[in-house]
């Protein structure tokens, strides 16, 4: 076990994949990993291996016209997606993430208006206010050992009526990860509180892995919230 942990501790792309493949069941181990790699995390993105932040930022920009809209990045880490959104003119971007070390780096970049260090768990309401945000988005937050399908209840709760949700993730996790296979998308749609308006696939989302992105609107008796799903090919 010690040898495996050592081989997975390197911040290279290959070993980041190794970390994801281990599918930790203890969220504290996941947070510990990100805390250890926080200072080197951006090198994966800066080297062009991870296109997810650019893809999701572009998609949010396509559906949100108001640059003063209030957005929140779920598990946004060091703020890479937020910085891409700022290039489009968005300024009001919050973040909720369980890793303080990652958020500290995001703060140095002035990526977010507000950083909330909090872990999102199934069946547990966060400290975020209800119907506060025009858009909830996340990039790679649905990965083995990370967010559980039921946390989308919280996405819906904090979205304004007619607000948008953009989720970007590796397509393979929908079919291979125990947490999501026959669970994530079926759960999202059985809620009947939002509707899918778009579902796109992208090649080379992360390294040579494809991605998928769904966009939805949450649905209430009178109004809707929208889900947009992006996924790598």
From TrEMBL:
Q: Name one Pfam family in it.
A: Methyltransf_25
- InterPro entries attached to this UniProt entry: Methyltransf_25 (IPR041698), SAM-dependent_MTases_sf (IPR029063)
Please give the Gene3D superfamilies that the UniProt record associates with this protein: Vaccinia Virus protein VP39
Where is the Methyltransferase domain positioned along the sequence? 72-163
What's this protein's name?
Williams-Beuren syndrome chromosomal region 27 protein
What organism does the UniProt record list as the source? Trichinella nelsoni
Gene this chain is encoded by? WBSCR27
């Amino acid at each position: 076990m010690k040898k495996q942990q050592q081989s997975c501790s390197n911040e290279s792309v290959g070993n980041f994949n190794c970390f994801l493949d281990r599918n930790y069941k203890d969220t504290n181990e996941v947070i510990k990993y990100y805390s250890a790699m926080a200072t080197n995390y951006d090198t994966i993105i800066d080297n062009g291996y991870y296109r997810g932040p650019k893809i999701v930022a572009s998609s949010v920009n396509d559906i949100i016209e108001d640059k003063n809209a209030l957005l929140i990045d779920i598990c946004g880490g060091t703020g890479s997606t937020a910085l891409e959104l700022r290039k489009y003119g968005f300024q009001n971007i919050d973040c909720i993430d369980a890793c303080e070390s990652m958020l500290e780096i995001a703060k140095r970049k002035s990526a977010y208006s507000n950083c909330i260090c909090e872990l999102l768990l199934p069946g547990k309401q966060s400290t975020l206010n209800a119907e506060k945000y025009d858009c909830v988005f996340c990039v790679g937050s649905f990965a083995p050992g990370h967010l559980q399908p039921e946390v989308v209840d919280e996405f819906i709760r904090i979205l304004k009526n007619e607000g948008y949700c953009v989720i970007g993730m590796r397509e393979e996790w929908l079919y291979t990860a125990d947490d999501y296979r026959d669970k994530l998308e079926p759960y999202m749609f059985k809620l009947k509180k939002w509707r899918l308006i778009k579902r796109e696939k992208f090649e080379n989302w992360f390294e040579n892995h494809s991605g998928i992105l769904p966009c939805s609107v949450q649905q209430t008796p009178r109004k809707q919230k929208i889900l947009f799903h992006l996924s790598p090919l």
